[in-house]
Every structure is written in structure tokens, then in C-alpha cells.
């Protein structure tokens, strides 16, 4: 069984596939900039992600494997990404 969640809700060891980047609501300039930055970092629809590590305080930041690279994000940034979880 698979389900979709915001990447910010994922826990260590969760894996999935990105199904949506950004809210597609381009009326706020900082949201557009964040979406552009995420796309440049490789967070594109269809990319495989795995949550590798969570920070000690508030579980922030998080370390992710995106396809073949490692990236760190804040949870509020990860909230802009929707993933479909898959079994490990």
C-alpha cells in the first residue's frame, strides 16, 4: 500500500517518489523562489528520495538522498514537496 505525504512528515528510513514540487500557487515571491531552488537541487517529479538523518532539535534539518546525491533541507522547505511513499 502506498500513500502520499509532505516530505516534511517523513521519518528516518522513509522512501518515496516525488509527485509534486511546490504548491503551484505562484502568488508569493518567496514560494516561487523556493520551488525554483528545489528544482535546481534535483527535487523533480519522479525523483526517488530517502530520509537518511534528522537533526536533534525539532528533527530539523533533515538529510535526504535524492536519486544519487545527498541534500540537507529544513522541514519547512520539505513541506513544499509531496511524495508517494513506497515500501523499503
Report what the structure shows.
It is a single chain. The model has no long low-confidence stretch (mean pLDDT 89). The protein starts with a strand and ends with a strand. Helices cover 18% and strands 38% of the residues. The protein has 88 residues and is of the alpha+beta class. It is globular and about 35 Å long. Strands 1-6-2-3-4-5 form a six-stranded antiparallel β-sheet. The protein has helices at 29-40, 75-78; strands spanning 4-6, 15-21, 48-54, 62-66, 69-73, 81-86.
Structure summary:
The protein has helices at residues 29-40, 75-78, and strands at 4-6, 15-21, 48-54, 62-66, 69-73, 81-86.
Q: Which range best describes the helical content: under 10%, 10-25%, 25-40%, 40-55%, 55-70% or over 70%?
A: 10-25%
Query: What is the string of helix and strand elements?
Result: EEHEEEHE
Overall mean pLDDT score? 89
Unreliable segments of 5+ consecutive residues: none
Q: Using the CA coordinates, give the radius of gyration.
A: 12 Å
**Beta-strand residue fraction:** 35-45%
Please give the alpha-carbon distance between the first and last residues.
12 Å
The main β sheet shows up as: 6 strands, antiparallel
- Count helical runs: 2
- What overall geometry do the principal axes of the alpha carbons give? globular
Structural class computed from helices and strand pairing = alpha+beta
* Secondary structure: number of strands: 6
Biggest sheet: strands side by side, in what order? 1-6-2-3-4-5
Amino acid at each position: 500500500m502506498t500513500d502520499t505525504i509532505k516530505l516534511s512528515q517523513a521519518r528516518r528510513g522513509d522512501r518515496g517518489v516525488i509527485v509534486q514540487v511546490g504548491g503551484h500557487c505562484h502568488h508569493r515571491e518567496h514560494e516561487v523562489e523556493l520551488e525554483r531552488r528545489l528544482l535546481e537541487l534535483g527535487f523533480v517529479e519522479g525523483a526517488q528520495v530517502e530520509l537518511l538523518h534528522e537533526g536533534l532539535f525539532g528533527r530539523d534539518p533533515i538529510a535526504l538522498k535524492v536519486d544519487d546525491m545527498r541534500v540537507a533541507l529544513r522541514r519547512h522547505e520539505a513541506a513544499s514537496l509531496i511524495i508517494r511513499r513506497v515500501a523499503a
